Amino acid sequence: MLQFDPVQLPEGTAALRQEVRDFLAANADRTSAPNSDFSSGHDAEFSARLGERGWIGMTWPKAYGGAERSFFERYVVTEELLAAGAPVSAHWIADRQSGPLLLGSGSEDQCARYLPAIVQGRSFFSIGMSEPGTGSDLASVRTAAKRVAGGWRVNGTKLWTTDAHRNHYMIALVRTAPADGNRHAGLSQLIIDLAAPGVTIRPIRNMAGGEDFNEVVFDDVFVADADVVGEPGNGWSQVTSELGYERSGPERFLSAFRVYVEFVRLVGADPERFEAAAVGRIAAHLMTLRRMSMSVAGMLENGKAPNVEAALVKELGNNFEKLLPEIARTAAPLGGDQERFRRTYAETLLLSPSFTLRGGTREILRGVIARGLGLR
Amino acid sequence: MDQVLADAAERIFRDQCTKTTLDAAEDGEFPERLWQLLCENGFQLMAMPDSGAELADLFAVLRVAGRFAVPLPLAEALLANRWLGEEFGGGETNALNTVGLMAENGSSRWLGVPWGRAARRIVGVADDGGVFAGTPVAVNEAVNLAGEPRDQVEVQDVRPLPYAEPAPALLALARVAQSAGALERVLELGIGYAQEREQFGRPIARFQAVQHLLAMVAAEVAAAGRASDAAVAAIGSERFTLEVAAAKSRVGESVGLVAEAVHQVHGAMGFTYEHQLHHFTRRLWAWRDECGSEAHWQALLGRRLCALGADQVWDFLATSS
Prior knowledge:
The complex is a heterodimer.
Chain A: H1 13-26, H2 44-53, H3 71-83, H4 89-105, H5 108-119, E1 125-128, E2 144-148, E3 151-159, E4 169-175, E5 187-193, E6 199-204, E7 213-224, E8 228-229, H6 235-241, H7 243-247, H8 257-267, H9 273-301, H10 307-331, H11 339-351, H12 362-372
Parallel strand pairs in A: 1-4
Antiparallel strand pairs in A: 2-3, 3-7, 4-5, 5-8, 6-7
Chain B: H1 3-16, H2 19-26, H3 32-40, H4 55-67, H5 74-84, E1 97-102, E2 109-114, E3 121-125, E4 131-140, E5 150-160, H6 167-196, E6 198-199, E7 202-203, H7 208-233, H8 240-266, H9 277-289, H10 294-308, H11 313-318
Parallel strand pairs in B: 1-3
Antiparallel strand pairs in B: 1-2, 2-5, 3-4, 4-5, 6-7
Helix pairs in contact in B: 1-3, 1-4, 4-6, 6-7, 6-8, 6-9, 7-8, 8-9, 8-10
């Protein structure tokens, strides 16, 4: 049976929460179009301001500019930013997983070169996993790196790379040796400078009209040995160890949160029973999901690798992110000031197909959970 | 929380709550031996103020009871003793006391009384949450859809009890905890059956369609368990009733999905009376509507949030842990 033990936020997090809210109030001009989807607001200036406050790389060692704070403190900051609809996507990936990856598997030299700028909110990273022929079956990547003097030459194509056209680096999973029977062997993670010669970035328009994700083509791109993360050939186990961080955070159930806020505003202080029930139903989901997500943060804080629990939280959270707009839509009253609700609802609905795709599809997550249950 | 109590209860339930006992109870036979065993171990007194146990321990025991579909009105018996207190004969003998709802405030006709037919004293809960003691004089037997007795009882000597607890929320929490336990058992049954049943030359657990159903079930069961824990942890806090509201709603939603999916996994076998699955799924279906359906509690929680206003909703959610 999967365990989600209660956690109590430590002393001091209430004060930190208030600091974040004060900061958000002072930067209200940056959140004037609130969207609680973590990948929908790229604002380098906002990220730099967060960096000044010490709210990026919060858990990292002080030697690299971090604050050595707990996962719970990071949790409080990230959930406050998301709930307010702050534009966080510029630094999001670097803070959530690129930094922790380098700390866990990277060299001291890599940490010293990359982490301080991430912490300052001035260096942004993208994920380089998917390819034209590689989605859920990640081990099938065909982008390959060939040994050359002092490093590697990379050729291939990465796809659906969020913000590659705005970010500085990609950590790409590439094949550095043939599979030879074990398809998880021979994979490596490389830090690729997205401004390097031979990198071509083409934006892809999504169905909501946004241009956030890209196709990134590598044509003989040179990557120095010093930018291979961990040992060559160790890429698969590194990639899978990122998943606990990637899958359980508040961004996995808050993407549609602003729809809820506008729904409550539309319904008003004196709702019909049906409307009140819709408001309460959504709250009940949110309260439970947040607690499960914090339980996983507690496991991470204790040094565990809760990959199955994280998959389960993401599965529930993503389904809820799709359910929320549906509950709100079907219960929304006809009158009142509809404009804000309708706009937020429409924006979120158009983004919603991505909720159960990014970071591992629903089908992959259910497979991970099933394995955890001993079914495969 | 006292794990020793929950473990002791589990040993008794595991021993006593066989399919035969469950079937007999559904045929109207009060499980006397099980009840006497529990009394010998002092469980009938555990929710009384000076028992030494926390109220949270009661709900830990009820969760275990849910795992075994215990065919007793355990929550009602123990809460009745608490509310009757020594002054009104709570826990005085091993006789069963129970809790029902007053048809209307002040009425002597009490409804939905679990095992009212076997009870010595009954506590009636009024609309406003007030609790009253009554002595049964006539019983109209009825059952819920799980075959659990939910009688209509005429009472006399109705007297108000001096208890200032949110009785409706505590009763709802009892169903939440029982359901969380029963859901865990239903998941186990589903996994076990999928691993043992073979079709097309292999266990059906090997089929992705079955794996995905059970993965969804596991997620729902985990959510229900976490929601139940949170509401139990809120006992005594000012948000208790709202936390119960959230839990009753969340658990109720899980019930529908889980029962449907695990019956599908069990195929026709799980549709037979002979199989034990229905003792759990029918209770889950009954309990989600008892002590306030999802919609009842959702509306209560929703009204509070609407009164707070859109810009305070996040603060409400974030200040719970």
